[in-house]
Amino acid sequence: MRVCMRDDRKRKFTIAALSSLIPLEIVREPQRDVMLYSFCTPEKERIYREVDERRGEGILFAAGGPHPTGAPGEVLQHFDVVFIGEAEISLPLFVEKLKRGESIRDVPGIAFKENGRIRVNPPPPPVDLNEFSKPYRFRAPVEISRGCPHSCKYCQTPRIFGRKMRFRTPENVERMTRGYREVRFISSDSFSYGGERRVEWIERLFKMLEDRKIYFGTFPSEVRPDSISEDILSLVAEYCENKSIHIGAQSGSERVLREIRRGHGVEEVYEGCEKILSYGLKPVVDVIFGLPCEREEDQLMTLEMVKEIVRMGGEIRSHYFFPLPGTPYENETPV
Known about the structure:
Blueprint: E1 3-6, H1 12-19, E2 25-27, E3 34-38, H2 44-53, E4 60-64, H3 66-70, H4 72-75, E5 81-83, H5 90-100, E6 110-114, E7 117-120, E8 142-143, E9 145-146, H6 157-161, E10 166-167, H7 170-176, E11 182-183, E12 185-186, H8 198-208, E13 213-214, H9 230-239, E14 244-250, H10 254-259, H11 266-278, E15 282-289, H12 296-312, E16 315-320
Parallel strand pairs: 1-2, 1-3, 3-4, 4-5, 8-12, 11-13, 14-15, 15-16
Antiparallel strand pairs: 5-6, 6-7, 9-10
């Protein structure tokens, strides 16, 4: 039985991670027997069209990732099976049952249609990242944490992975990246890596990876303004290759930051930028325009913050609000 996944440069990390779990063929168009997709909300219409065109050809279509997790009922109008949330446990079991010709109805963490109704199975227990440490088949950023303790209204991360952060140990990361010339990471907030022991863990991580080029605190492992500390910046300046730190500020309005439940204020953004600059690094700051709670005066405040950060020597990356399923803002429209 062949298990295939759609080749997509945006899914490099997902392909690398899934290839370490199951034998996986990477293809450019749907193929028998099982066809896997992982996708985000902006991609859904393109993927639905591709799948719908190949229905009835004996292919079992299965979907996972942010959009299918947030909107399984919608996705099941086009797919046969949806993986909800983490799939390290459910996907290998799903594939093994199919190979044996057994029913998949009790595989944890999946949704499918049964007698015309949608059945959603209970999720598997939360994954310990250290139990899934087989080196990736392809070079890709290493996921060092999962989950987020915050609850920003626009964000799927805590809704998919929970509000308790789980960490891959420095020793585990070192084993996974042997043979890498450079190492990048995935984290909802890289400066929170290790939790209460974050300075100790980050220093240990860097020392273990000294023979590799380290990129830490840059995409896709941005940093919250309230987690920026001089202790960690000092370590980044000493051990890492990156000359910038990416911060999620999102708005220059205190009212908007409270409304979207960011958990920090505007002053912490400025303070974080100043600390980063003091270590010879450049702050690269993300902001979101069009948030549902924004008023014109809020957007003007954000523009003022943008001008001040640029004047300080920073860089801005602006984004436009996009409603994501499973979040408090899923049914809102940009302003």
